[in-house]
Amino acid sequence: MTEAVLLEGVTKRFGRFTAVEDFSMRLPAGQVLGFLGPNGAGKTTTLRMVMSIIYPDAGRLSVLGHSKTLEVKDRIGYLPEERGLYRKMTVQETLEYFGRLKGLSGRRLQERVATVLERIGLSQWRGKRVEALSKGMSQKLQFVTAILHEPELLILDEPFSGLDPLNVDLLERLIAERRQAGAAVIFSTHQLNQAERLCDRIVLINRGRKIIDGTVAEVRAGFSTRIVVLDAVGDLSALARHPGVVEARVTAGHARLELADGTDPQEVLRQAVQVARVTRFEVQRPDLQEIFVRLVGRDHAPTDHSPGARS
């Protein structure tokens, strides 16, 4: 399988601060990779190295078979964390401008502009200036500037930030379409439920070092802790005090219990049926949110204050 992105032992320093250390990652064509980590972990620094905005101090990097992204820039779509559009341009002018930057012209450019405007529901706004758009409209417009030229590699830094559920669903479908077309997609996100739903692979970075790399199933299977989920008619609060329950979230008619190693879930069920009428009982692996919190820590605080290595 062709590697769209390959990083081997990449390190980036800003003065005495090491933002990314000995970091390796592979992304084949036709896959979506969720790039996860807390603020200040090194995500944006890594993506900027992939984009040749900054360069590593050590290690090897390849993008679409080239060591410098500038050599293949017209085959890449990039949505940076810092959004920015030309506010006095119209929506049509904005897309035409970004399309020309990526090598589109003539009839193909006009067809692509019409297609993406229809997909994101902005056809009637094509003649309006960007400054007249709502925040959600602007974010959708910025997103499609990154996919207008149908890139082979799509890099998205927090693409869903601030969007309502309908627009999140729209962007998810557009990402899925690029994957189905054979493109490789990297997206950095704090929305772990979306990563779990959309991604073929997950990479978790913390304090500049990789701590997880694998499919969602592989990542979840690597944790022996089991989660018991119950729905019931009755009071489940007593389950929080059951021996072997290390963490409990109990609300009216629902309980989510984290069990210590060696605790028998059936014992939990036996106690539950004594106090309530159980309508649902499942034993699960931890989800990405729980794994993230466990590995990174609840009180992680960013230590990076250098302007080039924010996240």
Distinctive features:
single chain; 311 residues; alpha/beta; Rossmann fold; Alpha-Beta Plaits; 2 domains; six-stranded mixed sheet; four-stranded antiparallel sheet; 9 helices; 31% helix; globular; disordered C terminus
Layout of helices and strands, plus pairs?
Layout: E1 3-14, E2 17-28, E3 32-36, H1 43-50, E4 58-63, E5 76-79, H2 91-101, H3 106-119, H4 135-147, E6 153-157, H5 165-180, E7 184-188, H6 192-198, E8 201-206, E9 209-214, H7 216-221, E10 226-234, E11 245-251, E12 254-259, H8 265-275, E13 276-284, H9 288-296
Parallel strand pairs: 3-7, 3-8, 5-6, 6-7
Antiparallel strand pairs: 1-2, 1-4, 8-9, 10-12, 10-13, 11-12
Helix pairs in contact: 2-4
Question: Could you explain how this protein is built, in words?
Answer:
This protein is of the alpha/beta class and 311 residues long. The chain has 2 domains: 3-220, Rossmann fold (3-Layer(aba) Sandwich); 224-284, Alpha-Beta Plaits, CATH 3.30.70.100. The chain is 31% helix and 30% strand. The protein has helices at residues 43-50, 91-101, 106-119, 135-147, 165-180, 192-198, 216-221, 265-275, 288-296, and strands at 3-14, 17-28, 32-36, 58-63, 76-79, 153-157, 184-188, 201-206, 209-214, 226-234, 245-251, 254-259, 276-284. Strand 6, helix 5 and strand 7 (184-188) form a beta-alpha-beta unit. The longest helix is centred in the middle third of the chain and has 16 residues, at 165-180. The model is unreliable at 301-310 (pLDDT under 50).
